[in-house]
TrEMBL record:
One Gene Ontology term of the molecular function aspect: methyltransferase activity
Keywords noted in UniProt: Methyltransferase, Transferase
Signal peptide: none
CDD domains, per database record: AdoMet_MTases
KW Transferase (keyword) present: yes
UniProt xrefs under InterPro entries: DNA_methylase_N6_adenine_CS, RNA_MeTrfase_RsmD, SAM-dependent_MTases_sf
Keyword Methyltransferase: yes
Any GO BP: methylation
Protein name (database record): RsmD family RNA methyltransferase
A Pfam family it matches: Cons_hypoth95
Spans through the membrane: none
Amino acid sequence: MRIISGIYKGRKIVAPSKLPVRPTTDMAKEALFNILNNQYYFDDISVLDLFSGTGNISYEFASRGTEQITAVDDHFGCVKFINTTAEAFEMPITTIKSDVFKFLENNNQQYSIIFADPPYDFEVELFSKIPQLIFENNLLQEEGLLIIEHSKHTDLSHLEHYSHSKKYGGNMFSFFEWN
């Protein structure tokens, strides 16, 4: 995986092969950040990266100047890898090893952008729990955006606070916001 833009543009990050991850493709990541670049000043926002895996999305935000990034994953190896990488690049990423759903139930901080990249084989009920907990617990700022990455075969358009989706190859991003 590589960092697409910002101060670390072009840097390659090689994750250990034993991590149970599926990093966002460069094509999909570039398209997503082109959308976000038109809506946000990256140095003025706070980001929550759920199911953060290798930290791919967190690194991209950090490279673009975001100072408040929290990455949550329940896999010790993923959290350790993100910590090591963030330290090596001096990136402001705080990691939390936790079950994402428990974190969402117990957290009370608000974020400008919440990005979730759960396993593609999640049942729709588990996907639906993500926006449900985020909006019920008021974790998204008023002008904030929740983005869930999922397979093009998963339809989340029926969920509350759904706004729209964008498809890139086999990847899909569904966007949720306060109505």
